[in-house]
């Protein structure tokens, strides 16, 4: 979809999108289209409501969109995504989005992002007679009273583009999205968006003593990749470190999963969020330094797989007793976090991981579990997420949970073996490898990275975390 500059209204021909706040007082229309109106009894602007009018003389189609009384960012985004996702046949050559003066930049950003996101389809490998719709041939015009409407629109497009890239990484099958694929993606994106990328293959990872990372991938014929990305801005005053869990498929290892394995292509949702965020940071040219580490492996079952009761090493030098090979994500994160902190010393460190079913059991699919001892960082993350509908909520990091991970034979064990406090004890395990960093947050996105929605018949990617990180950087 091409977004065209200018506030073209006069003599416009095509689809005209008219969003409205809920209005209980009368007829809804726009000044330029007073001859096209709908009575309050048929359309009042209620959330998720629509009304369509076709003008026979001009051939224009007027689509009235209800946003509700005080719409949240996410609900606006969803309302517009619904249009391109479900009513794509209405979108021909030209589309005009007409906002009133009372609709602020958040409404514009959410609307444009939603329209772009709605062009995404899951049928990547379907053989169909009809060619897929070519959205690049459709021009979107914006009518808005905002002075910076063009800037807001361009930003919205870039947000959606990065999120769609994240969709692809999570939704495509594991025989496509391998550690090698993600490493190549990061290298190409770095060249395009202005960040440096280094990749450790298995031999280089062995030289770097990334032992916990290597242990997880040793049962797979798909070699692991340890990705490091560096984005630098000359005017930066802060340095953010990111780590994303990149288990491209998780069988559970020898502690094999007995159910739900078909969904385990999503176990690299944290990696996808960090990779998508790096694209967006570079695309927006943010004034911040960012170093990201994405350890990528496949946790498979083979005679070479690591065993329950193995004791393995780690980049930190600390030893780990393996209680459960299905608690593998925390092992690669341990090396990723420790490598990042020791070699780059970022001011703040945030990791994203589809880590535990416990987080889903606590919060369902409404928000991610947040772990940090830094109250200021916790507040900033909560505020940023709330403003765009990517909610995070804190769980305790009390040291009383630390003893749950004590091992008799090694420095720490990777799983406490109990059906309680799973997300919390996983966070305490990760904390052990952060060198007591005073501004570190772990975000467990097991319930938010991949799920059901109205936009597909099966579970699919959400790109949770991409926009959250940008919002955090922009506001704080």
TrEMBL record:
Q: Which residues bind Mn(2+) 1 per the record?
A: 250, 326, 328
Its top-level enzyme class, in one word, is: hydrolase
Q: Which reaction does it catalyse?
A: Release of an N-terminal amino acid, Xaa-|-Yaa-, in which Xaa is preferably Leu, but may be other amino acids including Pro although not Arg or Lys, and Yaa may be Pro. Amino acid amides and methyl esters are also readily hydrolyzed, but rates on arylamides are exceedingly low; Release of an N-terminal amino acid, preferentially leucine, but not glutamic or aspartic acids
Could you tell me the keywords of this UniProt record?
Aminopeptidase, Cytoplasm, Hydrolase, Manganese, Metal-binding, Protease
Q: What does this protein do?
A: Presumably involved in the processing and regular turnover of intracellular proteins. Catalyzes the removal of unsubstituted N-terminal amino acids from various peptides.
Output the Gene3D superfamilies linked to this UniProt entry: Leucine Aminopeptidase, subunit E, domain 1, Zn peptidases
- Which intervals hold domain Cytosol aminopeptidase? 168-470
Stored PANTHER family = CYTOSOL AMINOPEPTIDASE, LEUCINE AMINOPEPTIDASE-RELATED
Q: Which residues form the Peptidase M17 leucyl aminopeptidase N-terminal domain?
A: 37-127
Protein name, entry field: Probable cytosol aminopeptidase
Cofactor binding, note field:
Binds 2 manganese ions per subunit.
Active-site positions on this chain: 257, 330
Tell me the protein family, please: Belongs to the peptidase M17 family.
Please list the cofactors this protein needs: Mn(2+)
